[in-house]
């Protein structure tokens, strides 16, 4: 389920917040680029195409607001940049865990991995420690197929 503008307007109003073009455009950009792990600067560049008078600070404030409303998720891929993507609550799966990320150490490309195989581990942790796991984040570091093939070809030379 995606969040359309009407649903987003309703959420803003319920929170006592103004519905602004900037807020709608930032959310729309994130929705259109689902799965791309965008920086605030990436979002800004795309929003200013339709709304040239917007400032980068406005995008940062809007993303922060969307984080607080749990409409976007913040992702740290250990590359020095904070990235954002449409949140799991927008997808209509409250309680669903974030997907995991596969990060190539050679080229830096990032893939999302949707399968969540840690539910059994979370249940075990809860039984063993009485600690209720609300969420988790998992990153796998390695080498993508293309980089591995390129490295192998260079070694054969």
Automatic annotation (TrEMBL):
Superkingdom of origin organism: Bacteria
GO terms, molecular function: DNA-binding transcription factor activity; transcription cis-regulatory region binding; zinc ion binding
A single BP term in Gene Ontology: regulation of secondary metabolite biosynthetic process
The keyword Transcription regulation is assigned to this record: yes
Annotated positions binding Zn(2+): 104, 107, 144, 147
Needed co-factor(s): Zn(2+); Mn(2+); Fe(2+)
Cofactor binding, note field: Binds 1 zinc ion per subunit.
Family, as annotated: Belongs to the Fur family.
Name of the protein in its database record: Fur family ferric uptake transcriptional regulator
Organism this protein belongs to: Faecalimonas umbilicata
Encoding gene, per UniProt annotation: fur
